[in-house]
Design a protein that fits this description.
This protein has one domain. It contains 13 helices and no strands. It is mainly alpha-helical. The relative contact order is 0.23. 76% of the residues lie in helices and 0% in strands. α1 packs across α4 and α4 crosses α7.
Length: 303
């Protein structure tokens, strides 16, 4: 492993760590504000953090003579923001009723769902993805289904969040090749923030005092998780094998369990820990690159 690859691997690991601990910030922040208020303020903050990066990228593109498809950028920012709003809102509400560790692993189910949903967009899905989907279902059963065959409300909401995050990724895939990724991300955060803040004023009673009480959680989730981690991901993925990069980033779910245990004294039962392990195996399998036959053709094609 050369120095650049080692450095990028560390940056991606740092990204996964920031995202994993963000589940704790999301949980602690709701001791003072409602889920929609938290989601709205941190999203706007995340968008503001990305403004200078988007400006620098735009200046760089203009120097290189790269034109921006403004129509695609606006529509992409709108649709990505809408999906992100509903997904992150469900996740935020779900954390009210489940542990941050379980939330991290259930959310990560989107990694398995993305290639399956891709079938509707005529994208091929390989055998490993189907195997990982079956394994993930076993993991979800151990994580979510009680001995009375009931599902915790928080787990159900988080599973819905995973479905929406899968849709969010497919929407990003639709627009990312046409526009600058940093600017697209900035716009989606602003759209998410506006929608969440509007919903907060309709269904909650946000006030400055409560927001200030939750300031450290909001600052971490907005600046670190949205702004810094996203930028680190962009830098870290340059020159990296996408499969390796995604495997490192998937450690986010494991770090969420560790963070919940260290900072919130949340522990999982033996059954739930086995479910986490099974889910992690499914996540890894879903991201393994397809093998090539001797003639160079793909034996297993995945999204």
């Amino acid at each position: 492993m050369n120095k650049a690859t080692f450095r990028n691997s560390l940056l991606l690991l740092l990204t996964a760590t920031i995202w994993g601990f963000s589940f704790v910030a999301q949980s602690k922040g709701m001791d003072h504000v409602g889920p929609l208020t938290f989601n709205g303020v941190r999203a706007v903050l995340g968008g503001l953090v990305l403004v200078p990066f988007a400006a620098m990228q735009g200046a760089s593109n203009r120097k290189k003579g790269i034109k921006t498809d403004r129509r695609a950028l606006l529509w992409g920012g709108l649709w990505c923001g809408i999906f992100l709003f509903f997904a992150s809102s469900l996740q935020q509400f779900g954390i009210l009723y489940t542990s941050v560790g379980k939330s991290g692993f259930i959310t990560a189910f989107y990694i398995v769902l993305v290639p399956i949903f891709g079938l509707f967009l005529k994208k091929k899905t390989g055998i490993l993805v189907w195997v990982s989907a079956l394994i993930a279902l076993v993991g979800l059963y151990l994580l979510c289904i009680t001995e009375q065959f009931s599902v915790n409300l928080g787990d159900a909401l988080t599973l819905g969040c995973a479905v929406l995050f899968a849709g969010h990724i497919l929407v990003i895939d639709r627009f990312a090749s046409k526009v600058d990724g940093v600017t697209l991300s900035m716009l989606q955060f602003f759209v998410n923030g506006v929608l969440a803040c509007a919903a907060a004023f309709l269904f909650e009673k946000p006030n400055l005092a409560s927001i200030l009480d939750a300031r450290w959680s909001i600052l971490y989730a907005g600046i670190m998780s949205c702004g810094v981690a996203y930028t680190l991901q962009i830098i870290g993925q340059k020159g990296m094998n996408p499969a390796v990069a995604s495997l490192i980033l998937s450690l986010e779910s494991c770090i969420a369990v560790l963070a919940g245990w260290l900072l919130l004294n949340q522990s999982l039962s033996a059954r739930e820990l086995v479910g986490c392990a099974v889910m992690f195996v499914a996540i890894i399998l879903a991201q393994l690159p397809p093998k090539k036959a001797a003639n160079g053709a793909l034996q297993d094609s995945s999204l």
